[in-house]
């Protein structure tokens, strides 16, 4: 098997791609998958519904965002998607200028959505703080668990860094502990260490139970200089 990198061109490619995204982020589990998908309940029907909604939403985001580039890595012998990612290239201005708080509309209304929005805005705040100028952003990176350590992620990273260098842009990524060392090997350096913080006053039992989906969680803001 030899992995092959392709840029996503058609809406029909998203279903398989996001299934692999889910597989990569749920084995082992990461706090970010439920936060950005609403997939936090063990019921298979609800999990499927969350996957469908996430696929449609990410496809819609991509359609409406000219900076967005989704990539997929396939097994060239079978055509099966084994990994992928998303890069965004902001060539001018501050992409977070004027952005206020956001609502996690893909979570059920009421307390679940309030809790998810509370943590999502903590995550977004670090982006607004560090990525307030033109840059390239590796927004998402994933590999199917059965195809790790085969250079799948490296293909996605290299593609984006080469483009960033051509455009004269520094690059940013938000790393989990599993990915931090790999990003460092590509020249990224840590500029901040971030942690989710719970509500100081626990509002009720439901809030406390929902909060456990996201705590504890640490991530590293990282940057790479042009051509490093």
- Care to count the β-strands? 7
- Helix fraction? 25-40%
C-alpha geometry? globular
Strand order of the largest sheet: 1-2-3-4-5-7-6
Task: Characterize the structure shown.
A 7-stranded mixed β-sheet has the order 1-2-3-4-5-7-6, with helices on both faces. Strand 2 (68-75) and strand 3 form a beta hairpin. It starts with a strand and ends with a strand. The model has no long low-confidence stretch (mean pLDDT 95). By secondary structure, it is α+β, with helices and mostly antiparallel strands. It is built from 7 helices and 7 strands, in the order E-H-H-H-E-E-H-E-H-E-H-E-H-E. The protein has helices at residues 14-26, 32-37, 44-64, 111-130, 152-167, 180-185, 205-211; strands spanning 3-7, 68-75, 81-90, 135-143, 171-175, 189-195, 218-224. The radius of gyration is 17 Å and the shape is globular. Helix content is 39%, strand content 22%.
Short account of what is shown:
This protein is an alpha+beta fold and 228 residues long. The chain has helices at 14-26, 32-37, 44-64, 111-130, 152-167, 180-185, 205-211, and strands spanning 3-7, 68-75, 81-90, 135-143, 171-175, 189-195, 218-224. The protein has seven helices and seven strands, in the order E-H-H-H-E-E-H-E-H-E-H-E-H-E.
Topology:
Layout: E1 3-7, H1 14-26, H2 32-37, H3 44-64, E2 68-75, E3 81-90, H4 111-130, E4 135-143, H5 152-167, E5 171-175, H6 180-185, E6 189-195, H7 205-211, E7 218-224
Helix pairs in contact: 1-3, 4-7
